[in-house]
Amino acid sequence: MTLLRHARSAAMTALALTLSTPALAAPAPPLYLGADLSFTNEMEACGARFLEHGKPADPFVVLKQHGGNVMRVRLWHTPTWTQYSTYDDVLKTITRAHAAGLNVLLDFHYSDDWADGDKQPAPAAWANLPTDAQVKALHDYTREVLDKLAAAGQLPEMVQVGNETNAAVQGGVKDQPIDWTRNARLLNAGISAVRESAKAHGKPIQVMLHIAQPENIIPWFDAATAAGVLDYDIIGISYYSKWSTYNLSGLGKVIDAAHRRYGAQVWVVETAYAFSDDHADDTTNLLGSDSAIPGYPVSPKGQLKYLQDLTQTVVNNGGNGVVYWAPDWVSTRCKTRWGTGSSWENAAMFDIRHHEALPAFDWLGKTYKPQR
């Protein structure tokens, strides 16, 4: 990746349209297909029993057996409203993933709660710190978490330095101007901590930067590059048709442009599609027929076709990964801040009534080759 980083730095100083071809071609990275299983421990504690062919099934094993090779998990700093997505819960999740033979992508939210494309709330412990102290805190926390995971034999293969960081890290909100001098310092502090930990433990860790919706990719990464944020391996994109102005073709064009422009791998690291408009609880579902894409019915077959065609689009345009978000967030007796059950039960990859694995898992085992 050294040649790619030099090329990125040289080309993007002038915001050139493409990278120069490296003198030596690096081996093509593998195609990563998988899912975010951050909810599994919680759902099981809430009484969910996952099935495949009517028999008890472990979602991590199901993911692997169908052809998946990566599992993503989120980490909150010090959540006071849940016992999940804490360090201990994440360690359990990573251990389960590695035991199933999956690579792990650890998603640092750098928050006590959801950090996303609209808001990036700082952890309470850091919220009132001056910038220098926040930079140090973010670096030291990242390094501490990774060192603890290494001591447990569970160092992840990939790390997200922030989740959907469209707004400024540590306090930014949607449509608010970004102080890129400060933002770059924070992002680079997290990246440096990952690189240091990888070196200390003798294991390579790939760094991902993650932005919500493809229409935001080029403007954000151009600004990041101009501010000196250069040392990353993967660009992660959240793509949900309900909240994006781009269709699959438009997404593909962004993937191609980003790969050429920045010399990084490009993944769709969050996506989902509803398989039903049914529900098993009173919590309003976020996806459904109101957000369906023409040609992809809201049905198990439509969900599978969406994932296959999305992955083919990614591959056709030089991308390297697709990760499904929350296939395990099924309806249970447990309450959330939004109500009892799940707002995602009809977009999971297990059915609504029995939590039986859906045909969508077959998306993982298909062979995808570029079709130009």
Automatic annotation (TrEMBL):
It catalyses: The enzyme specifically hydrolyzes (1->4)-beta-D-galactosidic linkages in type I arabinogalactans. Keywords: Glycosidase, Hydrolase, Signal. SUPFAM superfamilies: (Trans)glycosidases. Its EC number is 3.2.1.89. The keyword Mitochondrion does not apply. InterPro entries: GH, Glyco_hydro_53. Residues 1-25 form the signal peptide. GO terms for molecular function: arabinogalactan endo-1,4-beta-galactosidase activity. Pfam families: Glyco_hydro_53. It is an enzyme of class 3 (hydrolase). Belongs to the glycosyl hydrolase 53 family. This is Arabinogalactan endo-beta-1,4-galactanase. It comes from Novosphingobium capsulatum.
